[in-house]
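Quick log. Single chain, no ligands specified.
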Amino acid sequence: MWEQIRVNKRNSLLLLAAMACVLVLLGFVIGASYGGPEGGYVGVFIATGVWLLLTIVSFTSGDQILLSASNAVPITHDVHPQLFNVVEEMTIAAGLNKVPKIYIINDPALNAFATGRNPENASIAITAGLLGRLNRDELQGVIGHEMSHVVHRDILFVTLAGIMLGSIVLLSQVFMRGLYYGGGSRRRYSSEGRGGGQGAAIFIIIALVAAILAPIMAQVLYFALSRKREYLADAGSARLTRYPEGLANALEKIAADSAPQLASANKVNAPMFIANPFKTKMGLSAEGLLSTHPPIQERIKILRKLSGGASYRDYSKAYSDITGQRTIIPPSAITSEEVAIREAATKAEKQQKTEKQIHQVGDLMRKVNGFTFLTCLCGLNLKIPPNFSNPTVNCPRCHKTLTIPQK
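-> predicted structure:
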C-alpha cells in the first residue's frame, strides 16, 4: 500500500493548503466587514498567523485535543486485558514497531476511532458500549480497521482536518455572533467612516455569506476523502485478521445500535469514527450524500462477499461487484498475494464471550471512572466509587471489614 501511503501524505499537504485558503479568505472578508479593504489585509495577516499556529498545534498535540474532545481516557492492561492483547496482535500483523496507545470512551454508544501524527504516535479509542457487545473476532475486526488507518498514514490527515475544520467553524460562529450583537457599532462606523453605509453593508453581506460557506466548503473537502478511507480500512482489516466476517458482524451490531447518540460526537470528529456517530430521529445512522461515511450496509455486503480470500485483490473484486464501480484499491496493492480466510471461534465460545462481555460493560465503565474493585473472602465483589472517603468498607454479605487499597 506504499502508493496509498504516498497519496495520504500528499492529501495532508493539500489539505493544509486548502484550509489555509479558506481561512485566509474568511479572514479577509471578516476584516473588510469591520474596517474596509485595509481591514481585510489585517484580517489576512491574522488568519495567516492563526493557520500557522493551528498547523503547529495539529502536528504537536492535535491527536490529544481530539481525544480530549471525544472524552477518551487512557487505560491500563488490567482494565481490559483482551483489548490490549488484540491491539498487540494487530500491531504485529501490521508490521508496526510500536503498539498504539489505547483509550476508552465512557459511552454506551458503539463506535471507535484512531488518531495521531504517525504510527509511532498513534492512539486507538473505543467506546465502552462497543467493548461490551463484541466477541473477540468482532473486536479484532474493529481494531484491524483502526490499525489499517494507522498503516495507511491517513490518521495525520484526519487530525489536521479535525483541528482546521473546528477552527474555521469556530471563527465563523464568532463572527456571526459578533455581527448579531455588535451590528449597531459597525453601522455608526460605516456612516461616519469611509465610503458611507452602503459600501460597508456590502462588505458585511459578503462576510456573512463567506462565514456561512467557509465551514461548508471545508467540510465537503473533508468528506470527499474520508469515505474512501473507510473502504480501504475495511480491506486492511480483512487482510490483517483473515476473517472479514468479524468486522462485518461488528458493523452490523453498530448499525443496529439502539443506544443514544454518542455524546461527544460533533461535525469535527465525526469522520474519525468507524461508523457515522450521528443518528436520525428514528435512531438509525444518518447516511446520505453529506454523510461522513459510506453506507454501512454496503460495507457489510462487500466484506461478506469475500468468501475466496481476504487479500486486497479479493476486496477489490468484491467492491466492484457490490457497488458497480471501479475499485478504490491502489494498483500497487492488487498483487498475486493469497490471504486465506481463517476459521471463526466456535459458536459456543462466541456465545459465552458475548454474554460475559454484556454483563461486564457496566464494570468496564466503572473502572474507567476510577471505581475500586474488592473481592471479599465470601466471594462477593464490591465496587467502591472514587469519592468514597473511608479507608475501610464492610461486606454487606458476611460483614467482614475490608481495607480499601490506596491509589
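Residues 184-192, 281-285 have pLDDT under 50 and may be disordered.
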